[in-house]
Amino acid sequence: MTEFLRARYRLFPVPGEDGVERARHLAREQTVECPPGIAPEAEERALGQVDRVEPHPEGGCEVTISYPVDATGGELLQLLNVLWGNVSLWSGVRLEAVDWPASLLAQFRGPAFGVDGLRRLCAAEPGRPLLATALKPMGSTVRELARRAGEVALGGVDLVKDDHGLTDQGWAPFRERVLACAEMVHRANRATGASTLYAPNLTGPVDRMAQRLEVLADAGCRAALVAPLLVGLDTVRSLAETAGVALIAHPAFAGSFASSVTTSERGVAPRVLFGDLFRLAGADAVVFPNAEGRFPYTVEDCLEIEARLAAPLATIQPSFLMLGGGIDAARLARWIPVYGADTIYLLGGSLFASASPRDAAGELATLVRHISPREGA
Amino acid sequence: MTEFLRARYRLFPVPGEDGVERARHLAREQTVECPPGIAPEAEERALGQVDRVEPHPEGGCEVTISYPVDATGGELLQLLNVLWGNVSLWSGVRLEAVDWPASLLAQFRGPAFGVDGLRRLCAAEPGRPLLATALKPMGSTVRELARRAGEVALGGVDLVKDDHGLTDQGWAPFRERVLACAEMVHRANRATGASTLYAPNLTGPVDRMAQRLEVLADAGCRAALVAPLLVGLDTVRSLAETAGVALIAHPAFAGSFASSVTTSERGVAPRVLFGDLFRLAGADAVVFPNAEGRFPYTVEDCLEIEARLAAPLATIQPSFLMLGGGIDAARLARWIPVYGADTIYLLGGSLFASASPRDAAGELATLVRHISPREGA
Prior knowledge:
15 helices; homodimer; eight-stranded parallel beta sheet; alpha/beta; five-stranded mixed beta sheet
């Protein structure tokens, strides 16, 4: 029996264009991609079907397409291609939601650690959010970065991640930097008895990734940062399956796909890209800019991603939402009750701008332990 | 002496927002990503500089930012991150053009074959465009696809590529399909004396790519199709450096980055993404939808990409523009004088819709040999 992958799109046809006709085009474009009648048997097997087309109260229409699961071949990239390959080149179409069939999910392992595993790695008890910081800025020396890593670890952050712009620049070469920062975090852990986790940035040349993973192993790192749209989502999948480190997914380069659903007629809804797809690929935590920071996303966007990262998804583990993008230390207390417990608050710049990053981190570490997150999450 | 990578952006500030201030934010967001004053020495080394901010006659402003080349660390993904990492998450900003310094270009090899090499692979004399077709539709059996490959090769197309949706589906598993299609193309070549090139779709699991390259070697294939935004641009770079096959880059999943510059206030101008970046990564040919087909791009978009694929770029070879997306056989003759000689016309559906694809291909093969492309190109 043919199983189906159901995807919901919002279409914004140009005036005079028929929504049903456009939905049929979409289903054809994403599968057989040829005029009707050339290959009836192939169409029988592979052609997407339009389930439903309804006008949307705010304009355009909402359509649901059923794709045969077999069209994905059980491969992540072909799954992305079926959902958002050629049609990414259209204007006036947005991928809104995906209904994941169990037979498809069974072909993916998702996060290797997930929420529970990542909590264990930083010894953070269930029920409270986590505190993270980003080592920055790019242009700093190894010594400067390592010193900062040590300070915030002593202050009690759960997780220190590299800024996503730190790679292998001459100012702070990868191996030297990772070993030095890891050492300072280990030292802090020995001093405090805590388990601050250090996640170096692994985004880099694909043919040097194995070598960099060896550096992580040498440094005793159990987590890494990757930007899925830079390294490719299937590289994330492969890392999740084999690398043995928890993966924190960064949204660099991904914004072109996903603008806030309230402001765009194109792209992939943030909940689908950062919620469903990053999780399916294997991200244990997903970085996304919080509302009211430097980026144009809303609390609704963030809550929707949170919901998808936590939603039941066959045997695929839930992931943390890691909120960054300009969370002010002064406002952290106000955000904690907005989101659920499985949230990581990522503070970078504002922490290092304080006179004592260690003390500042310590105060924030107290907040995530004492302010109650949203209930029922 | 610090060398700089200059990037031009178009900014669309919200009313009341200052263009200069926003440009400074951009330069900071893409490099040190922290408030001023935290790390003066790091800023000295790595902070992007605003060169110029000018109002644009059609709204917003045009800004030029100079990034220290060292910020890229000589890595493709970090280069992408500097140009379009976090700022991809902004609204109202578009990357318009990049001025490539020689010291940066020297760190990339670009296309392994380029225009000349790809012409040699299909024995196509300089000065004429090439004719290509896409094997389709997905859902066809190996036998059906191989038969179609043989027919169009007998008709005299220069290049047969897999449709980008053909991967390893049960209907036509990768190895079986590639061997069978290659065999039919080889047979046709023996019969005609021509050198039609078959390019299977290599887009798939990154950890099975080496295995699939072996299949290509077994099948005697010298070219492959990849979707850079699916496999990741650095995987393309790595393949170009080591795989020994010409790479045809497909725009699947890439459309979210690049809508026509006349219609969008976001993303990366098509000329930058498909012209500069795909070429730099190592694409020997870049598929892009022609104007007046199924996709919302203009002749100007296509000509701008063509110009960037051909522009002098240190020692980096030029690449072909491969125009597809619904070019009608009936209108091919009209397009040839619009574009230069280093263009590949990709016709799929309309060819297979004819009573004899072989004869239809033969007629088109005559056109690309007898109609003059645009001069001076």
